[in-house]
Write a structure and sequence with these properties.
Blueprint lengths: L12 E8 L2 E7 L6 H4 L4 E7 L4 H11 L3 H8 L6 E4 L4 E9 L8 E9 L3 E6 L7 H8 L10 H35 L7 H29 L11 H63 L15 H22 L4
Parallel strand pairs: 3-7
Antiparallel strand pairs: 1-2, 1-3, 4-5, 5-6, 6-7
Helix pairs in contact: 5-6, 5-7, 6-7, 7-8
């Protein structure tokens, strides 16, 4: 059974925009009794519901718009997979919205449910953050195309804004990968493997979202419903093509991340080999010196060299001579 408990503690907010050719109104709804008169108008309107924590209010919206109980369950289940459900007098679209609040790619996922009716579109969001500011601005433009078309075209603009944000996020990820690639090639020792895996995680999340979204758009453009006009289908198909391109680019970036990990690990191995080579050369130089020091450190009474006046200095000459010869030999072999 679907859990219909409150999603979060954010206060619910209702934004209503009524629009048409030569007509624009914007309201902040405080009482649901304000909504029914808009249903009787010839103009179209968009009701944006922010936060899903007031079940009583959501049930009132369900009654006003005659939304099916199963549809409301899908709206409240924020773990729902992106999909399209066609009902008698409305269409429900469930999709995931991705966005970042900073320049750093730190992705946030939010489910948004879109209900398309004859003269209305309702969007249900988990919180106040969205990617629809551009659409709000376009609605204020009296000569904008968005005012002239039906609710199906308006729903398309919402989906288009969501998919466009996928593109923007993918571009940020691509930029981050290019920066990481440059650092790795330049052997920047400050870079950490976690930075690469952060980008990999972002790619996996984006792929997890865009894959079912592509299926959703494919289903939507084949939907036989009076609410989806034929003239809107080319626009929906355009978003579908965008989703396919994003998937292709994601595969390319995923391969780039795999390559970066391989290069990173190779660089680490090379640095470790350099360290081991240096230590080996030092140890090799000191092996004969240690041998000589060990020989002359033995406590035998009759060792001729111990009585020689210049024995100490001669030993140092041997030590230095062996070291210089070995260093010269290693350099000739290009071991360092």
């Amino acid at each position: 059974m679907t859990d219909l408990s409150p999603i979060n503690d954010n206060p619910i907010s209702l934004e209503l925009i009524c629009f048409g050719e030569g007509h624009f109104e914007k309201h902040h709804i405080t009482d649901l009794s304000q909504i029914p008169p808009f249903l009787e108008q010839e103009h179209k309107f968009w009701l944006n519901v922010t936060s899903l924590n007031n079940l009583d209010l959501l049930n009132e919206i369900k009654v006003i718009f005659d939304i099916h109980s199963m549809a409301l369950e899908d709206i409240l289940n924020t773990q729902e997979r992106p999909k399209v459900e066609v009902f008698d007098h409305f269409i429900l679209i469930v999709v995931k919205m991705l966005y970042t609040r900073t320049e750093i790619v730190d992705l946030e996922t939010e489910q948004i449910s879109i209900v398309i009716g004859k003269n209305y579109v309702i969007s249900f969001q988990e919180n106040k953050y969205d990617v629809f500011d551009g659409i709000r601005s376009r609605l204020e433009n009296p000569s904008g195309k968005i005012r002239k078309h039906g609710t199906d075209y308006f729903a398309y603009t919402l989906l288009d804004a969501i998919v466009d944000e996928y593109y923007a996020i993918l571009e940020k990820i691509t930029d981050q990968i290019e920066v990481l690639e440059e650092k790795i090639i330049n052997e920047d020792k400050k870079i950490r493997l976690g930075e690469i895996y952060t980008q990999r995680k972002s790619i996996q999340l984006l792929k997890k979202v865009i894959w079912p979204t592509r299926e959703l758009l494919s289903t939507l453009k084949k939907t036989e419903s009076f609410l989806i006009k034929r003239r809107t289908l080319p626009f929906i198909n355009d978003i579908y093509e965008q989703s396919v391109q994003i998937m292709d680019n994601l595969e390319m970036q995923r391969e780039s991340i795999t390559t970066l990990v391989e290069i990173f690990m190779t660089n680490i191995s090379l640095r470790q080999n350099d360290v081991m080579k240096t230590l080996t050369i030092i140890a090799t130089i000191f092996i004969p010196l240690t041998f000589l020091a060990g020989v002359y450190g033995m406590n035998f009474e009759y060792m001729p060299e111990l009585k020689w006046k210049y024995g100490y200095w001669f030993t140092w000459i041997i030590f230095l001579g062996i070291s210089i010869i070995m260093v010269f030999y290693f350099k000739r072999k290009r071991w360092f």
